[in-house]
Amino acid sequence: DIRVVDIGGIDTEACCGTHVSHLSEIGQIRILGVNSVQDGVFRCTFVAGKLAIKAACEDMRLIHDVCTVYGCQQSDIMMNCNKFFAAKNSLTSQNKALTDQVISLLVKCCAYQPGDKHVVIRSEENGTSFIKGIDEACKQFPEMANKSILVQGPTYIVGMVQQDIADKLAKEINAAFEPLNAQSKKEYDEQVKKMKEEGVAAAN
């Protein structure tokens, strides 16, 4: 049997769920989420019966935990969340401004440091900040024309170096990878040869 559920004035659909004698037997229904599938079509995720009660208890437990963390009443959760994110955004902006100042000072120290033409700085900051900061700071100090500054982070190396040093580094990097490139090309050629041989064998 196919059961058709009609919600007057809203929708009529074939029932693909549990068949009960009366809808009241399903008990409590709790909607977990609604997402758009396509224009005008939405998918509604829900639980019913004991699972709905369990979901409600989990929600209340989560609300209680949030209140404990913020030290507030349930009615003040949103206000505290807004304060938290406002403070976070403010600190992020302050951190960026301080990072820019540090970069400027580092470049300035490098520019006026006698004798040292190459300076390496180790930092945990984002590499993107240094790329922009070094470029802008170096424009302010003509003395950087004869200097090289590198910033080494956890997963990056950025900086400004003289052309001759850049060429030398490029050659050293290419030389270091040359054996790997040669090995990769050899393996690739062997793989292509093997595939061609297998193709000929299959055709025969």
From TrEMBL:
Keywords: Aminoacyl-tRNA synthetase, Ligase. One of its GO terms (cellular component) is mitochondrion. The keyword Plastid does not apply. Coiled coil: none annotated. SUPFAM superfamilies: ThrRS/AlaRS common domain. One of its GO terms (biological process) is alanyl-tRNA aminoacylation. GO terms for molecular function: alanine-tRNA ligase activity; aminoacyl-tRNA deacylase activity; ATP binding. Residues 2-45 form the Threonyl/alanyl tRNA synthetase SAD domain. Pfam families: tRNA_SAD. This is Alanyl-tRNA synthetase. It comes from Trichomonas vaginalis.
